[in-house]
Design brief:
Layout: E1 3-14, E2 20-22, E3 26-28, H1 31-42, E4 47-56, E5 62-72, H2 77-82
Antiparallel strand pairs: 1-2, 1-3, 1-4, 4-5
Length: about 80
């Protein structure tokens, strides 16, 4: 079992009746890149979150989500991922 840290960026956009919905997740190469991508995505969406997670490369299971930075209007995805 090989555990690696991965960096992902999640944009948020406006959904029906003013709700906030998740956009398509994007992987980044490192923490700084995730932060820059999230900042850029937030300009064209309601907001974006840069997150680090530990991933088991054998089964793709993600654990230990850690917020790097949030920009704009976002949902609390860390709680959802940890549940």
């Amino acid at each position: 079992m090989k555990i690696v840290e991965k960096f992902i960026v999640i944009p948020f956009r406006k959904g029906p009746r003013g709700s906030i919905i998740l956009g398509e997740m994007r992987q980044a190469s490192n923490e700084g890149s995730a932060e820059r991508i999230a900042e850029s995505m937030a300009r064209y969406n309601l907001g974006a979150s840069a997150i680090a997670v530990l991933v088991d490369e054998e089964n793709g299971y993600m654990t230990s989500p850690r917020l790097i930075k949030e920009f704009g209007q976002v949902m609390n995805v860390i709680e959802d991922m940890a549940a």
